[in-house]
Structure formats: C-alpha cells, structure tokens
Amino acid sequence: MSALDELRQLRHGGGQVRKRDNKAAFWFLAPWFAGLVFITIGPVLASFGLGFTKYNLIQPPKFIGFDNFARIFSDERLHNALGVTFTYVFVSVPLQLACALVVALLLDRGMRGLAFYRSAFYLPSLLGSSVAIAVLWTQVFGTDGLVNRVLGAFGIEGKGWISDPDTALSTLIVLNVWTFGSPMVIFLAGLRQIPAVYYEAAAIDGASRWSQFWRITLPLLSPIVFFNLVLQIIHAFQSFTQAFVVSGGTGGPSDSTMFYTLYLYQQGFSRFDMGYASALAWFLLLIIAAFTAINFWAAKYWVFYDD
Amino acid sequence: MTTELSRTVGRRLSVPAKHIGLVLIGFVMLYPVLWMVVSSLRPGDEIFRSPGLILESLHAENYTEGWYALSPSFGTYLLNSAVLVLGCIVGNLVSCSMAAYAFARLHFSGKRWWFGIMLGTIMLPVHVIIVPQYVLFSQIGWVNTFLPLIVPKILATDAFFVFLMVQFIRGLPRELDEAARIDGCGHPRIFAQIILPLMKPALATTTIFTFIWTWNDFFTQLIYLTDPDMYTVPVALRSFVDSTVATSWGSQFAMSVVSIIPIFLAFLIGQRYLVKGIATTGGK
Amino acid sequence: MPRGVRRRGAAWAVLLSLTASLLAACGSGSDAGGDLTAEPVTLRFTWWGADDRHKRTQQVIEMFQKKHPNITIKGEFKEWNGYWDSLATTMAANDAPDIMQMDELYIASYAERGALLDLNESKKHLDTSNFDQKALATGAIDGKQYGLPVGLGMYSIMVNTDLLAKYGIPLPDDTKWSWDDLKKIGEQASKAGGGQVFGVQSPGINDTAGLSIRARQQGKAMFDAGGKVVLPPEIATQYWTYIQDLAKSGIAAPPSVTVEKASAGLNQSATATNTAVFGLWWNTQLTALTAASGAKLKLLRLPGETQGKAPGAYYKPSMFWSVSSRSKHPAEAAAFVSFLANDEEAAKVLLTERGVPANQKIRDAIASQLKETDKAAKEYLDTVPVSDPPRITPNGASTVDAILKRHTEDVLFGRTSPEQAATSFIKELQSEVDAAK
C-alpha cells in the first residue's frame, strides 16, 4: 500500500490557511439567493402559516392554533400511511442503490455495446412516472400479467398482485427498483472521476482487484454514494407519482399504497383541507430533516472527501 | 491502463455469457416497454383482450390518429416541451454550477446554515407549495407562460443539482485550483477554466436529468399551462386518459412511444459525456 | 443581528402579501343580469374528458364564436384528476375559468364555498325552459341554481347477451327481478364460465349510486335534506354482505381480480374484457362499453326495483355547466352556457358524448343521428320508472366514492366484517360532512 499512501500524503501536504471569500461567494450564490427570496421563501412560509389555519382554498384561512398538528397524533389513517412510507423507504432505497451500483460497475467499461445497454437499462426510468405506467405495471403484476404467466407455466396460480393489499406495496417497491436508472447514471459519472493514477499505484503495490474495489473505488465513490443515499431517501419519503398513477390516486387497495404525500395530497386537493395538508407537510419535513441529519452525521465515518 | 473491478468481472465471466445475462435481464426489465410498443400497433379494442407480445395485425393508424387526436396536434406539444426543456437545462447548468462552486470551494459566513437551508428546500412536498406559488405567479401575470417553469431553474431552486455538483466538485483534487490561485487566478477563472471542464460528467448528468424530469413532469406544467396551445407532452398525454370515459389507449401508447424517442436519444447522446471524465481525458 | 432581522422582515412581507391575496380571493363584481357587451371579451372554459370530447367541444366553441364575434372562448381541456387539481389551485388564486364542467360529487362543495354563480341571476341570457324541473333540481341547492345539468344517466345492469347465449342461459325478466335473482343467475353463469368468466362484476367500487339505490328501494336515503348521513347501518351491512357473498361463492371474480378490474377504468373492466356477464353501469356508458368489449350488451333494469317501497332509480346528471362567481363577464358566460345547452347545431356535434341530453327538446332533435347503442340508452331513460332524485352530495362528502371503495376492499380481503364496515363507513362519512362546515 505504500505507493498509494505516499500519494495521498503528497496531496494533503502543506497546511491550509484560508481566508474567507464572502464577496466571491455572494456573487456565485446570487441567483440562488434571488430564487430563495423571491420564489422559495414566500410559499414555504405561507405553507407554514397555513398549517395553523383551517383553509379550504376558497374562503379565507381561519386561525385554529395547533389543532392541525394535534390531529397528526390521532389520525389513524395517517399512522398507516407513515408505516407504508417507512417500509417503502427502508426496503426500496437500499435495493435500488445496490442494483444501480452493481449495474454501473458492470456497465462502466470494458465491453462492446455499453452505450446500448446503458440506454436500455435507463429506458424504464423514462417511463417510471408517465401515465402509461399504471397500465404497464398491470401487464407485469396484474391478473393476466407476465408474472402470473410465468407462475402459470410452473402450475402456480397467481393473483392480482397490485390489487391485493398484502402485495400491492411490494409491487411499488419493485417499480422503484426497476427505475434505478437515475442513481446508476450518477454512479457512472462518479466512477469516471476516479483518477486512474490510484489504480496504477495500487497495481504497483500488487493489490487484488477485490481490495482495489474496497480501498479505491468505494472510498473515492463515497461522496457519490452518500449523495445518492441522501437524495433517494428524501425522494422516497416524498414518493408520490408512482403510487398515485398505479392506484389511480386512491392509495388503495385498503390504503396499502397510501404514501404519506399521497395522503397529504388527498387532504389538500380532495378534501380541501389545505391547513391540515400544510401541517402534514411540515411534519414530514421534520422527519426527513431528522433522517438527513443522521445521514450527514454518519457520513463523517464513511465518506471520504479530498479536501 | 484500466484495472478496475468491472474489468475483473468481465474477465471472470466469459464475454458472451455476460452479454446473454445482460440481454436476459434487459428483456425482463424492458417487457413493459416492449408491451407498450406492441400495443401502440394494435387496434384499440384488442389491447386489453389479447395479452402478451405477439402482434396479430398491424394497426399503424394509431400513430396518425394519436398525432391529430387533440387540437393543436401533437407537434405543438413536442415543440413546447422542447422549448421548456432547453430553458430549464440552460438555467440549471449555469445557476446550479455557480452555487455548487460556492458551497464546495469557497469559505464564507454561515456556509453550513445556508447549505442546510438549501437542502431543506427540497424536503417540503410540492403539493403544499404549489398553491401559494401559483398565487404568487398569477399575481405577476406569469400563468400560462413558461416563466413559472423556467425562471425557478435560472434561480437555482433545484437544490438536487446544486447538491449533486457540490459532491462532484468536492471529489476533484484541490491542488488544481490551489495551483491556479497561486498563479493569480480569481474565482471566476478557476471556476470557468478549471472546475467546469473537469466536472463534465456532473454537467452531463444534470443535463440528462433536467431533460428527462422536465419532459416527464406533469403536475406543475398542468397547473401553470392553461391554454392548449401551451400544453406540453405530459399534459397532452394525460388528456387522452380519462377514467370516466373510454380511453383511446392505442393513440395514447403511440404518442407515448413518440414522446419517449427524444428522451431516449438525449440519453444515448448524453451518456457519452459521462464517459469523458477525468480518468480518460488524462486531466490528472 | 440587523441583517438577520432584515432578512426575516422581507420574508414576512412576502408571507403577508400572499395571505392578503388569499384573503382577497373572495368577493366579486357581477352584472349577471345585464346586457351582453359589444366589447371584445375573452372567457375561459374548462372541462375534463378524453380526446373525443375535446374535439367535439372545440368545434362547438368555434360555432359559438361565429355567432358572437366579439366573444373569444378559450377552451382548456384536462383529464379527470388533473382537472380537479388545477381547478382547486386556480380557485385559490382567484384565477378560475369563467365556465366549467362540474360534477355531482363536487358541486355542493364548490357552491357552498362560494365559488359558483347562481344561474338564476342571469336568467335573461340562459334559457332553461326545455329542462324538466326534476332535472333542473339536481343542480340546485336551497333554490339557487349552481349548475345546469348537461346529460342525464341512470344506473342500470349491463348484460353481455353474447355470453348468455353461449351458456344457454335465458335473459332474466328485469321488470320484477330481485337482488337474489341476480345472484342465482350469476351463479349459473359463473359455473358455465369455468373460472374464466364470472357471473357478476362485483359492485362496491365506484358504486355510491348502488348503495344509495339500495337504501332508496327500502324507503331510506344516504343523506337527508340537511346533508346529514342517514343511511341505516342495516342497509349498509346488507350491501356489503351481498358483495362478500358474491366473492365467496365465486359468482364474482376473486377479490384481487375484482379490485384490479374495477379500479382500472372502463376499458379494462370485467364488462369491457368480456370476463363478467352482468355489471352495474350508467346507461350512458353502453356505447363505450360495447365498443370496448366487441360483444352485444343490453341494458336491464336494476334488481329489487319492484320488491321494495319505491323504485331506487333516478336521473343523475352526468355533469353540469357552472359559471364562476368571480367571473368578470357572467352575462356572456351564461349566454355561452345557454348555447351549449340549447343550440341544436351544437347538440348535433356533441350528441351523447356527455350523456343523453337533459334538455328534452335537444334530446328529440338529435334522436335521428344516434347510434343503436345511444338509442337504447335514450330509450332506457325515457321508459324506466324513477323516483325523485336524492339530495346532492353534500359539501365535504366529495370523497364518498373513495371511502366506499376502501371499505369494500376491507370487506373483500377479510380485513373487516360487513357490520364493522357499515358503522365505520357511516361514521367516517358523517365526520367528513362535519369537517367541511
């Protein structure tokens, strides 16, 4: 390992005394600041304010104090939705990232037709949120779908997997894993950035390929793994479109695919209770922020930055 | 030059076996897509009565019928989506890379807080933001224009990409910009001449994702675009499907296929640039 | 920390201005009874539907613009879900379209929140003389006409006569059959179908009318005049027991198949895919279902209509034309609605795409142009006995279909008993109505 260590040491040699670049930062961040002030903050604060009101979208909001937030704790359908969402997040995110990483490694380089395979594997992600997905997913997991025909060939009688409350959520998890294209692309881009010089150094040291993966690829890819993990968790907590399209907006059968945001959406747009929906949104923000904070805290122990 | 895991795997398995494996996985993954393409060539009443992928009769009329099923015809929606996508890509590339440079390389007061706020902005579900935001944009008269969809991108509100680029920039060797700084370069030059060329994979990723997400985004486009002449592809595609009446699924699938072609091509072209990272350009 | 304070101050200013605009979103200046202007006027008109409806409606808009060159109508088409999202959002911003297609489930909820114009105010421009009073009443709340019914529909049984013939089962006599008769004949059909085809497409999903009719046949109702839920639990229990029996005895498909087909929309339903012999549908869906299934379908009267106290059947408006209470040009909007409802040329384009026209004169005027299936639907409407329509779905109960569906699924998958489902359904529905007050 000595050549590799030497290289690392070399790159981190020299103390860093830095002065602040407030002025430059301001200019680089100017568009973002403008967006924050003019586009983001107003609606965000408005939604926060509405959380304390009864607001049916047409008549003026009525202040009701903490009622909406209190209701969060007694709303049984919401608790079910939380359960559904947590299951979804903790099962589908690791599965999806693992698939994305393995396929990215396979499709990184070294064989013909890579461009084609990459594009083909990305194709499902292009469809993942389209309105056609409801029908397409029935073609896979429906009564007359692919899965049942394969099972039928083995003499096993299937069922409507999407329309059975015991399995509906699983089909959505598969749907999410199926659309692993986005994290795959990010992994691919990340792999491209690992300087070849590391592998050369490791080869000089005679490191096995397996140990190269653990000692070079994974640490150097860790910022990207971290990025994918953080974003996919946030994304999964907010997952909406797929459940909405596949269940026809109901979260059914029997609320088994009632994701948190789908429930929130129904409160706001079907029941015209935008006050409660806003309170729910801020509660979700707290949950997501907590998980993101844990992620950032844990990152100190496994994410390797070159700075 | 390369001795990576992927190569290892490639050597251990024989190459044909790898291809067969990938094709098999590919088939299972692409089954729904293939079914959609086949269905787009079936007469409407056969779609749900004949399962599987075997095409009994060719019914290419779905494509012409679908193209002219709505007024204006589908070309308008493709054009609108293209304009919108272009605006969003330019906006995201410029503004997000600037913000990312600041977060990744500059030291400034309250950086951690600002970064936290930026991440926080993607944690609120869109459904409670959309109403106040609509009120805001409708008061400045932007409803039924592309402005409410493009201007936020120009102003870097898509924190996903800022964060993505921050992660990439942090992965770049610092000696490069430090050397440039010693040579007397200011931040704008370091950003434009050193960082940007090196983060091509991240920029390509941003471009591809912005393209695809904008091309597919339904909710905000539905809310802000009211006049059919301004409708985009996803809004138009949904106008075929109404659960309360019969749906012309043949036309719908045909136009879905048509609408996937541009993003598929965009990906096919865009993914090349993912390959041209630091490792192959010899930037280090 | 002056900087922080200033920043926070700016944010609150934005918040206040947003709140102010939310508050300002009520109040209207209306001259619904005034004369039509000669100035150029632009009206926005929105509806939900699929491509066929969009085409026909756009054609009618052009016809109107030819007659009124100073009025421009901007047609905005959407599909069902997107339509309501978009309408709710634009309402909040005081930016709603002038004329809109309205549904029975939502009309009270929009009217009672003050979003709809009382069409009586613009009687001068809106001719309703060819509408049956019973039909008009379906769009009125407390004497205010918030919607003009477009088409009428009736709940019915649709039977696949091709399948009946194939199985050698005679057509039931629908003038006096009961729910038990439907079960019996369904059982015969299921046996003949051999697991591929089932007797009855299970009710219980998108079937609020079915439950309401059950109650009406026994002299009860879902809601009383004040909007209170008065559905007796026994009737709801009976309803879900029936559904449970159908599934358990194999008369209907297994639960997961039933839910899949019933949730997926018209084209994928059991009736459209020829996998059920009998199904509950609106009579106006005959044409679409016949096209989708490719089989011969026939409309039958509902079971139980003659055993109970009164016929449960009623005229349900397929949808309404409504005008926004904040429209700046209510008179012109009413004139356009009048054109949609009364113009014969327009009717010949629209035909029965939105249901059999509620306007009786129009119904007769287009009779010669109708397809066989449309004629059958019209004849059903003209001949089958009905009672007075039920009260409009009250404000807050717009989600009744979703609540019903969830309870049916709970029963079908054995997660609850029909008795529990009945009490829970009534309780939840009542709390929805209360919450909207």
Summarize the model shown.
The complex is a heterotrimer of chains A (307), B (284) and C (437). Chain B is an all-alpha fold and 284 residues long.
Summarize this structure as a short list of keywords or feature phrases.
heterotrimer; B: 284 residues; mainly alpha; 15 helices; 70% helix; disordered N terminus; disordered C terminus; C: 2 domains; six-stranded mixed sheet; 46% helix; globular; MetI-like (chain A); cell membrane (chain A); Sugar ABC transporter permease (chain A); transport (chain A); ABC_transporter_permease (chain A)
Task: Characterise this structure.
- The complex is a heterotrimer of chains A (307), B (284) and C (437).
- Chain A is 71% helix and 1% strand.
- Chain A is mostly helical.
- Chain A starts with a helix and ends in a 5-residue tail after the last helix.
- Chain B is an all-alpha fold and 284 residues long.
- Chain B has two domains: 5-66, no CATH class; 74-239, MetI-like fold (Orthogonal Bundle), CATH 1.10.3720.
- Chain B has helices at residues 5-12, 15-39, 61-68, 74-105, 111-120, 126-139, 147-154, 159-170, 174-182, 187-198, 200-216, 219-224, 233-238, 249-275, 278-281.
- Chain B is globular.
- Chain C has helices at 2-24, 51-67, 80-92, 104-112, 133-137, 161-167, 179-193, 208-217, 233-248, 255-263, 286-293, 330-342, 344-350, 360-365, 372-383, 400-412, 418-435, and strands at residues 41-48, 71-78, 99-102, 140-141, 144-145, 148-153, 155-160, 198-200, 276-282, 297-300, 316-323, 356-357.
- Chain C is 46% helix and 14% strand.
- Chains in contact: A-B, A-C, B-C.
- At the A-C interface, helix 2, helix 6 and helix 13 of A face helix 1, helix 3, helix 10 and helix 16 of C.
- Chain C: This is Carbohydrate ABC transporter substrate-binding protein.
